[in-house]
Amino acid sequence: MSSWELRNWMWAEALSMFDEAERLQRSFFRAGREAAEASWEPPIDLIETADALVLQVALPGVAEDSIALAAEPGAITISALRRFAADAPGGARIHRVEIPYGRFSRRVPLPSHLLERVEKRYADGCLTLTFAKRTKETP
Question: Is 37 helix (H, G, I), strand (E, B) or coil?
Fold first, then answer.
């Protein structure tokens, strides 16, 4: 790996870490707001193939029928409510809660004028949206 490639890789990693820190900060500072507002953002993977764009959203414990998708020019928003699992047996104490719960919303910028959603799957707590790339822009 040349020093130029290494620098590019390091810069990409640093930007990725800044993005993650910003997302975590937004989630942390939203936690004290009203329950009606989004309080966290689920992590996503965005994968591009030659003919499609695949968006995967990690939604552990979220019922499929509660997920709302909203398309807008230049983005898609995924939102729902993840309820706190209070199914602990009587007398049990909770020692750690790391999986976020409450209302969430995640806006993902996408070139929607170049994409068409062709598939929506929800399995194992993961929402997968597949968008086919359009060959020509539509007005």
Answer: coil
- DSSP structure class, residue 25: H
The Cα–Cα gap between 77 and 74 comes to 10
- The pLDDT of residue 73 is 86
Question: Rounded distance, CA 83 to CA 72, Å?
Answer: 27
The owner of tokens 């309080």 is: 39
Phi then psi dihedrals of residue 65, to 5 deg = -75, -5
Residue the block writes with tokens 């020093």: 3
The identity of residue 41, as a single letter, is: E
The residue ranking higher by pLDDT, 40 or 17, is 40
- pTM of this structure: 0.67
Residue keyed to tokens 């539509």 = 138
Whose CA is closest to 68, among 110, 131, 127?
A: 127
> Rounded to whole angstroms, how far apart are CA atoms 64 and 61?
9
- The percentage of residues in the chain with a pLDDT greater than 70, rounded to a whole number, is 76
Residues in contact with 117: Cβ distance below 8 Å, sequence separation at least 6, in sequence order:
71, 129, 130, 131
pLDDT band at 106 (very low <50, low <70, confident <90, very high): very high
